[in-house]
Amino acid sequence: QWDCGSDNLHACRFADKRKQAIVLWSPLAPNSLLISTDTPAIRLYDFAGNQIPAVFEGGLLKVSLSTAPIYLELPASRKATPHPILSLSPLPEVDPEKSRSVLMNVRVHNPSGRDVQGRLSVSLPEGWNATPSSMAVKMPPGTRRESAFTIVPAPNYAESVAKLRFELKEGTTH
User: Would you say the pTM of this structure is higher than 0.70?
Assistant: First the structure.
């Protein structure tokens, strides 16, 4: 397994002494992943084995993903590292005895070579609330930003694991 920093991006890495292959796909397509690498000697193939062009944006490889796998091939001695756009820090726990809400900090990174603007939003289980529920994001190339959301579980919340989804949708600010 190769950690892409997102539940919506999946990858497995295979390597021998000569080369490595990374299989990438996204169950919630379309999607994309930015990858830093120390070599331009990268080959991309679609699920049928057809070579597709490698697109670099701001010095990073940009791979467009769908539910069908993409195969990234590079020499074994070279490095490839995913650059997640969103990350949570730290992953909080809700303790109903201490508080009915939790502050979640979402880190947004623009590793591209262009301005990015969009809307950062959160999807919650039924009955849960977030303040704010979404916010406009405008970021120049190479910048990072941290945004805070206050999450309030449903009144009938019992100890369990809940799935929250943060999404940055480009091109929309309202």
Answer: no
